[in-house]
Amino acid sequence: MTSQPQPEKRNWKVKFFAIWTGQLFSLLGSSLVQFALVWYLTKTTGSAAVLAGATIAAILPEIILGPFVGALVDRWNRRMIMILADAMIALCTAVLVLLFYLNQVEVWQIYVLVFMRSLGSAFHWPAMQASTSLLVPEQHLARVAGINQAVRGIIAVAAPPLGALLMDLLPMYSVLMVDIVTAFFAILPLLFVSIPQPKGTTTVPLTSPVQLWHEVLEGIRFMRNWPGAIALMFIATFINFLLAPSDTLMPLLVKDHFNGGAWQLSFVASAMGVGFVIGGLTLGVWGGFKRKIVTSLTGVCGIGVGVVIMGLAPSSMLWVAILGAAFLGIMVPIANGPLHALLQAKVPHEMQGRIFTLISSLAMATMPLSMLIAAPIADQIGVQAWYLIGGVATLLVGIGSMMNKSIMHMEDIESANAREAALASE
Q1: Nearest in space to 19 (alpha carbons), one of 246, 185, 220, 235
Q2: Does residue 52 sit in helix, strand or coil?
Q3: Rounded distance, CA 10 to CA 13, Å?
Q4: Rounded to whole angstroms, what are the CA distances from 209 to 126, 359, 361?
Q5: DSSP secondary-structure letter at 402?
Q6: Does an H or E element contain 146, and which?
């Protein structure tokens, strides 16, 4: 296997952070929209089933289309993908603005537009992830991942209280307008900054669905010959099954268990964001253990602990849940950052779109089922049970994964063997 081409060290920071800054604005706008829509549905319906439906609408595009999107990302111009995806998300928000302005919005319309926004995100996220390793030298990938997580944390701190404030001061359609403005700042630098195409990218036009399926299968063969990645993917799927209801139903935990409102929900969400900042900055400075997978699994165990703390918080002690959310936030970048850096370093550039979306799609595949199971139970007995069960199980899974040899050694040469096996089997 030939070594992967490395990004040019000269001026890489200027190019990368120009794009990164624009995406920062877009992420802020999207976070505001997400908070506003979730609280609108919580306040107007108070239904776990409605919130679960919104979550399912948001994740279905990535689950169903993810592997095919990845193959297209590996073929197409990644800069143009991000421009068009940002524009599509902003257009969907504009439709929501109009519906709220006319006072004609219904739950099913929110579902449809959330689905369409998610479809744009399904293209945008792998394009950005696959572009990062083309712009950032390998030795800086883990630190950039940590900085990314920290900035996401800052946004998670700012967006909920800002969203609650704007919802107090402005009509809903004006709050949603923020997302359209921030999308402009995301698209602007992409019009002037180039992103190199990876060596090995095919220039043959895509002529049939069969050809697209063949390229998806190439990504599957790559993963099949990387045992550690396969094991980790199944673990991520199981953890998502356990924790997805807890995340989706958090507004109901605040509303029904703690008798709180939008501001109380914003406190919990912001505490998690503070944790993101602390965890991301820690990873950005520290870089993690020598083996990235050890850092990541340590974060998984910490996530379990944070979720358990939130589930154990008495109804009169919201501050306990806030502390649990903060600890959970610290652990998320510790878990995710090194894993993203590992994949960016080990997976060939021309396959990263397929691998990122394949892992993400399979990891999220059981989430709709978990939503369908959790919603009626939460409506009957409350959501705390999901926090306790999911948190304990996540902690045990993290500990158990540290005893799995294929996972602990997935950073070794087996990734190179996987690439060679995939090419040999064509």
Answers
A1: 185
A2: helix
A3: 8
A4: 20, 21, 19
A5: T
A6: helix 141-169
Distance, C-alpha 253 to centroid of its chain: 22
Taking the C-alpha atoms of residue 167 and residue 214, their distance in angstroms, rounded to an integer, is 48
> How many CB atoms neighbour CB 59 within 10 A?
25
> Model confidence over 231-273: pLDDT tens digits?
777 777 888 787 777 777 788 788 877 888 777 888 888 888 7
What pTM value is reported for the model? 0.61
Higher pLDDT, 293 or 17: 293
State the DSSP H helix or E strand holding residue 87, giving kind and residue range, or none if neither: helix 78-101
Domain limits, the chain: 12-192+208-424
* Residues 185 and 90: beta-carbon distance below 8 Å: no
Tokens 């319309």, located at residue: 109
- Report the chain's C-alpha Rg in angstroms: 21
Q: How far apart are CA 301 and CA 279, in angstroms?
A: 14
Q: Is the domain defined by 12-192+208-424 classed in CATH 1.20.1250.20? A: yes
Q: In angstroms, how far apart are the furthest CA atoms of the chain?
A: 63
Task: Please spell the DSSP secondary structure of 154-195, one letter per residue.
Answer: HHHHHHHHHHHHHHHHS-HHHHHHHHHHHHHHHHHHHTT---
d(CA 391, CA 307): 5
Q: Whole-angstrom Cα distance, residue 261 to residue 19?
A: 36
Question: Which of these, 183, 185, 74, 137, lies nearest to 341 by C-alpha position?
Answer: 137
Cβ(172)–Cβ(97) under 8 Å?
Answer: no
Q: Give, for 139, the enclosing helix (H) or strand (E).
A: none
Size (the chain), residues: 426
C-alpha closest to that of 36 among 155, 167, 152, 153: 167
Helices 367-381 and 384-401, axial angle in degrees (round to 10): 140
Cβ–Cβ under 8 Å, residues 203 and 59:
no
**pLDDT tens digits, residue range 382-422?**
678 778 888 888 899 889 888 887 778 777 644 444 445 44
